[in-house]
Amino acid sequence: MSRLFLRTLREDPADAEFRNHKLLVRAGYIRRVAPGGFAWLPLGLRVKAKIETVVREEMDAAGAQEVHFPALLSAEPYKTTGRYADYGDDIFTLEDRKGVEYVLAPTHEEAFALLVKDLYSSYKDLPLSIYQIQEKFRDETRPRAGLMRGREFTMKDAYSFDIDDEGLDASYDLQRAAYERVFRRLGLEYAIVSAHAGAMGGSRSEEFLHPTPIGDDTFVRSSGGYAANVEAFRTLPPAPREIAGLPAATVFDSPDTPTIATLVALLNDRHPRGDGREWTAADTLKNVVLALTHTNGERELVVVGIPGDRDADLKRAEAAFFPAAVEAATEADFAAHPVLVKGYIGPWSAAGPVLGGSSTSGIRFLVDPRVVEGTEWVTGANEPERHVLSLVAGRDFENDGVAEVAEVRAGDPAPDGSGPIELARGTELGHVFALGRKYADALGLQVLDRNGKLVTVTMGSYGIGISRVMALLAEANSDDKGLAWPRSVAPFDALIVAAGKDEALFEAAERIGRELEQRGADVLVDDRRISPGVKFKDAELIGVPTVVVVGRGLTDGVVEVWDRAADTRSEVALVSVVDRVAALLEG
Amino acid sequence: MSRLFLRTLREDPADAEFRNHKLLVRAGYIRRVAPGGFAWLPLGLRVKAKIETVVREEMDAAGAQEVHFPALLSAEPYKTTGRYADYGDDIFTLEDRKGVEYVLAPTHEEAFALLVKDLYSSYKDLPLSIYQIQEKFRDETRPRAGLMRGREFTMKDAYSFDIDDEGLDASYDLQRAAYERVFRRLGLEYAIVSAHAGAMGGSRSEEFLHPTPIGDDTFVRSSGGYAANVEAFRTLPPAPREIAGLPAATVFDSPDTPTIATLVALLNDRHPRGDGREWTAADTLKNVVLALTHTNGERELVVVGIPGDRDADLKRAEAAFFPAAVEAATEADFAAHPVLVKGYIGPWSAAGPVLGGSSTSGIRFLVDPRVVEGTEWVTGANEPERHVLSLVAGRDFENDGVAEVAEVRAGDPAPDGSGPIELARGTELGHVFALGRKYADALGLQVLDRNGKLVTVTMGSYGIGISRVMALLAEANSDDKGLAWPRSVAPFDALIVAAGKDEALFEAAERIGRELEQRGADVLVDDRRISPGVKFKDAELIGVPTVVVVGRGLTDGVVEVWDRAADTRSEVALVSVVDRVAALLEG
After folding, report:
1. Residue ranges of E strands in A149-196
2. How far apart are CA B249 and CA B235, in angstroms?
3. How does the average pLDDT of chain B come out, rounded?
4. Best of B3, B67, B467 to disrupt the A interface by mutation (most A CBs within 10 Å)?
5. So what's the pLDDT on residue B77?
6. Which residues pair with A306 in a beta bridge?
7. Options 3.40.50.720, 1.20.1250.20, 3.40.50.880, 3.30.930.10; CATH of A45-69+105-233+422-474
8. A93: distance to nearest CA of chain B, Å?
9. Chain A: nearest CA to B277, how far in angstroms?
10. What is the DSSP letter of B200?
11. Which residues are bridge partners to A516 per DSSP?
């Protein structure tokens, strides 16, 4: 340790928000050297290498083969697949001295597909799964979360190539199972959540989220095992109801009702329900006007009817209308569509249908999944200061489809019937995508099938954020005093501290270290000529799981074995300490 | 092998010039995926990893500690040290979304110096040697030589930090010795040549060159052990001679002597020597006019007097005048300096001194080391169609210094007295630089010394081109049929070929493979259902050192052990083949 490239710090770095970031810097694992760029110091590099070994072993066991690509790639294929435009400012681009455009690859779908196209040509060559562990680049706007969100970060990215959907399913399942083994071996809690594929495209997609209060994702889960990220959550629709016998739609005056709350108050005051309960916001239908910008640049106004007790969730709307961009309609949009009577919008008016494919406006009208046939709503009558009562879905208005735009709430039923959901925060550890043929189509990746016919290959893409995994392991395995690594990734198995000034303490510490190394352990000896107090503070900060303190007791043939995580200490006879620690390492 | 991500090719890639490049592509080790960028396929990645392990072990043994830096770094520190301008178009630069400038680091002197400045502050922290194995980026103009000159390539770069010159010497020697061990372990021939420090700066610099006809560097070596690259070669100056008694300088008419050869012919015709030998070009002094562009942008004309039998070598001139840029003087330069009578330039004229600090022209006059005091020359008289005989150095003209601008020739004496030199071609494997304080000064890297005084740290920089080493190992260990790896870096220790159709052959091959793996060997089994001829061709191409052929002999309990490099085959009893091969692996 007297020669280790290490400087521990007592003060938190000014720019660090999360405990893992603060501790990894203070304990000398990483050091910021660029915005979103960290130097890996010797301790940090050891932990990262151990995580990589776990990932590599599980990839290999799943039949994936390791390769390595350049990070600097021609921009051309990224333009072909559309990702160049999709990523926009989020990726780094540059030109070489001849003006040829390059990207610093954020992920390698295009490059892997082109390599397989270059080398393989037959169904006999498939299935194939290949992966790399590599530095990736993204131009993060505010890279402040340490290793959790860097501009240059380490990632394992794997890609599978199959001749048909069944093959892709099998490859996907192999990677998914490998991910479960990786996170179990690392001792990192995870939830597998259904995800929206987004810019990656594809049919099936799941995120491995680590539940943590510092997470930047919100996800939902039920006690019965359902999990999804908020964008992918599917509302459980109620059963349709009988329309016959429902009261007729009735327009009523509703002055001074700028909000749902004022509308509900007016209803309870002037139009009390006959069934003994009060009107609530959930009885109203809120018609949210969204402006979509399609990928061809066309702007389209759509209206989505959602229960009035819920707000629209723009991220869910983006997922619902992907790949179009979504925003709230502007004043200009309303001005361009005078048919929409702002504040009193509804699909129906006394004069006839206002919204939907069969209306004269032609504005699409989509509804929340809860707006099933036979449900009765209070909503705008599409004339100033008037609403309508008992507007019945399937009788008084039609829809052009269902859209999941309403916010998700704790207590909502999970779609698989596994009970009410709760909302939790998490951070993405990994992501598995069944990409399908999007990339292979764009790049012409075809092989000959059994009948000698050219068929397009179907792909999967599977990433694990290695540096982020390290950050989350640090967060989960630490306390106010410092880190406390699990054995699977600790930079050293044991730290031997010579605690005192006597030369005999140093000799004994060195000897214990040597003997443990002969037993196959990675050992760090604190041989610095500084006070024991500083050494103990550093030991707590650095977080090697087992600390052997060689101190005053040595004259009585006794040393102390300190379990950093449990913070328990026990006296052990000098003669048996090597056996004791070796046994701990073997678990 | 039936599942290995591998496609061997019978045809050489169109863009490959060198055997290593052709074979590494054909044998499925690498594949071009960008200009100067290669994907490492599974076989190639294995070899590279083995080279990296050797380098890492020797770095660790030399007390260097591994770290890892981002490749994407702020341009600012590179501007501070001047390297941003020095590299110019040779490095990739880019801007982030906010317009901040970045470089893809070609090497990391600045970043390492800043990290040490950030963390360390005392002489007690030094010496320190830290290294990384990392992808580097350079914008090569014509990246055509495969792994020998890529735009993205793997490099080990180490940096040492010392408090004083003795410390730097010791750190330098440790790295230098580690390099020797690395190349010896890899079985790669090397010459350590004195080098010119160039853009890196510093006092002491040596290149590790691999002598090879495909090398892009020329270097000199003597049988007595001297070696230097051409830029660093120092001419052995003759002893000064007695001036007294030499004939006086005599101007003579020399019409129609546009070249040295015509001048020599005229001399022998009209002014024969009295000593029985003929005039030769070596008796004449050629005055080469060079235009220097200094780093501040100033242009300066200098004249260098070199023996007339040698041409000027612009690369040596660049090293001599570093950091100025050097080119031959242009017509415009001559027009601006009418004192120079083109074709008849000389330091002396009948009217007085023409060149040198004491002349009225003020044009600097430098001389070749052979132009020592008392040497007699025939040179221009600085008037049209006239030369001068018996112009004596130190009597008739002075110089402003010595400049190594003349070409180096086979047969020139080595400066250390170790005999005549020869010229050889080689490629740089590694480079060790005693940088001194250039970077530390520029970046303010200081620590407190023993007396509490701030002193500037002195640095060394030490690089090995990992991917280039792999290319040169492939070049040196191959023949027309394919690669033939040394055991130290082979992708597998043994290849077991099932040669035939009988299921028993495949079972036996698998069994031998398994048993060898249990003995700790890395084994590849060729279990493909294709003809033995194709398998043998692939075995020769891929170059695993030991091939076990399980073929027809199996029914008699015999297999064949084939040494790929020696191309020797021997029959071995099935029951003893595992022992035999395991013994080969242990050497």
Report:
1. 152-162, 191-194
2. 27
3. 94
4. B67
5. 95
6. A286
7. 3.30.930.10
8. 7
9. 56
10. G
11. none
Identify all chain B residues contacting A31, using CB atoms and an 8 Å cutoff: 115, 118-119
Residue type, B395: R
Which CATH number does B492-585 carry? 3.40.50.800
**What is the dihedral sign for C-alpha B497, B501, B504, B507?**
positive
Sequence-distant (6+) residues with CB within 8 A of B355 are B287, B303, B345, B346, B347, B361, B363, B364, B365, B397
Which value, in Å, is the radius of gyration of the alpha carbons in chain B?
A: 30
- DSSP code of residue A11: S
Q: φ, ψ for residue A347 (rounded to 5)?
A: -75, -15
Question: What pTM value is reported for the model?
Answer: 0.89
CB distance A66–B73 less than 8 Å?
Answer: no
Q: Are B560 and B569 in contact (CB under 8 A)?
A: yes
Give the CATH number of domain B250-392. 3.90.960.10
Residue B87 is predicted with a pLDDT of: 87
Look at B73 and A139 and tell me if their CB atoms are within 8 Å. no
pLDDT tens-place string over residues B466-517? 999 999 999 999 999 999 999 999 999 999 999 999 999 999 999 999 999 9
3-state class of B393 per DSSP? Answer: strand
> Which of B243, B407, B237 is closest to B315 using CA atoms?
B407
Would you state the pLDDT for residue A391?
A: 97
d(CA A447, CA B1): 20
- The SS3 assignment for A487 reads coil
Burial class, A398, CB count within 10 angstroms (exposed 0-12 / middle 13-18 / buried 19+)? middle
What does DSSP say about strands A558-563 and B494-498: parallel, antiparallel, or unpaired?
Answer: unpaired
DSSP code, position A329: P
Q: Is residue B485 a contact partner of residue B477, using CB atoms and an 8 Å limit?
A: yes
What angle do helix axes A577-585 and A503-518 make, rounded to 10 degrees? 40
Chain B residues close to A120, C-beta within 8 Å: 7
pLDDT of residue B435: 93
Report the 3 state secondary structure along A288-322: EEEEEECCCCCEEEEEEEEECCCCECHHHHHHHHC
pLDDT score of A199 more than 70: no
Q: What is the dihedral of CA B180, B186, B188, B191, to 10 degrees?
A: -10
CATH 3.30.930.10 corresponds to the domain B19-233+422-474: yes
Gap between the Cα atoms of B2 and A495, Å rounded: 46
Strand partners, A288: A304
**For chain B, which ranges sit under pLDDT 50?**
none
Per-residue pLDDT at B197: 61
Give the residue extent of every domain in chain A.
Answer: 45-69+105-233+422-474, 250-392, 492-585
Give, in degrees to the nearest 5, the angle at Cα B94 between B92 and B98. 165
**Cβ partners under 8 Å of residue B64, min gap 6:** B129, B130, B131, B158, B160, B175, B178
CB pairs under 8 A between A and B: 139
Residue B304 pairs with which residues in a beta bridge?
B288, B366
DSSP alpha helix (H) spans, A543-585:
577-585
Q: What is the per-residue pLDDT for A14?
A: 87
Residue B583 CB: number of other CB atoms within 10 A?
A: 11
| Phi-psi domain of A360 (left: phi exceeds 0; alpha: psi -120 through 50; beta: other) | alpha
